[in-house]
Amino acid sequence: MTSRDAQTQQRIDALSTILAPRSVAIVGASDNANKIGGIPLDYHKRLGFAGAIYPVNPKGGQIQGLPAYPTLSAIGKPIDVAIVAVPSELVPSALDDAIAAGVHGVVLFTSGYAEISTDGALAQSRLADRARSAGVRLFGPNCLGFMNIRSGAYATFSPALKAGLVQPGHIGLVSQSGAFGAYAYALARERGIGLSHWITTGNEADLDFADCVEWLAHDPNTQVIMGYMEGCRDGFKLRRALAAADAAKKPVVIVKVGRTAVGAQ
Q1: Which residues 6+ apart lie within 8 Å of 52 measured at CB?
Q2: 263 pLDDT band (50/70/90 cuts)?
Q3: Dihedral of the CA atoms 163, 172, 79, 13 (nearest 10)?
Q4: I want to staple 28 with a disulfide (CB 3.0 to 4.6 A). Which of 18, 86, 130, 240 is the partner?
Q5: Residue 125 pLDDT
């Protein structure tokens, strides 16, 4: 194996731990299955996730029938993914807790970052730097999360699932927009189109569209890759991801949206 092949395998393995998790923790877990911290817990319980599920809430006790932990560190067991659904002022301490607990990946639902202001962009950059220096991969912030349809991992608070589930299939969907991702999920369900994975990337402080396309190119359950892309900050990574899909003989269909005066008119 060449050094380039080894680097590729390392990237794929790291993302596989997150996108095909064996254990999931929900930080900010709620007993209310309609709240942002309660929805992913409810989904994992009801929709066939076979791995470990750990609700995390400072109050402890039981949440949706499962024992709750005050912190991630208190769990004392391997955690592949921590879903973080807390207000922005609590995110830095949640990330520090994830790092201390040895969490592999964080899915950050919380908004209020680069999408709203310069100060938000600076806070987002600090989060990304902190996670990167500790070797923790980050989805988001301001993302709707992901679904691994076959394994029952539903790290999302999207209400699209409440109207019904898509059938397992071989199309992997990556969207930078959570709203479009939810709409595409609903269309797939209505038209009987099966999905392997559904991934939204939000603000892309760390993991981005290209990372997910490259991972899907190596995923044995995905034969076609579909994407919704608003922009690309790293052309090299995107070309590398598309080359991987081409080498695997997997078609890639992308909707690329843009902003022009003529288009708006």
Answers
A1: 22, 23, 24, 77
A2: low
A3: 170
A4: 86
A5: 96
